[in-house]
Specification:
This protein has 187 residues and is mostly helical. The chain folds into two domains: 88 residues; 78 residues, Arc Repressor Mutant, subunit A (Orthogonal Bundle). It is globular and about 50 Å long.
Amino acid sequence: MNKEPPTEEAFNKLLAWLDSDREKAAERYEKIRLRLIRIFACHGCVEPEELADQTIDRVMLKIGWLLENYVGEPTLFFCGVARNVIKEDLRRRLSQTVPSPKEEPVEDDADQKEYDCLDQCMQKLPENNRHLVLTYYEEEGHAKIVRRGKLAQELGITLRALRLRTYHIRLQLRACMESCLRQNQAR
């Protein structure tokens, strides 16, 4: 999905849709997110947290329509969107071909430029942010979930705060990469 990420305004509207009390809305958001993660994990998805975030992003992109038209339990809407994300993920996984050991994976020039920009942007991050984002994304499946819990504990913060920190770092990386790629295209 190549759409722009949802805005902070969309996130605030989503919370308001979940509950008029911001504190209760935040709790409800976390419960929905955890439920989505469990749904994706039960369906054998490799990155259940990423897919849960993608599902929430899709709902946020429709928040204007939802506020005007949707009647019913918000959790059910999230689950309906999650069903579509599961189908897309399954199609993607089935369509991926694994190269045989004899075949060298072919990287085109555009991929290499993206990797180069990512390396440059990672180097521009402060050491603690670079370490945080690299640690946050290491491991896979359940081990990743456990690792993130330990990381939050080591930092003395909640998982929610950890997710927000990494989200802001990703925003910095995205902006840096877009700038870097634009500079490369201008050359």
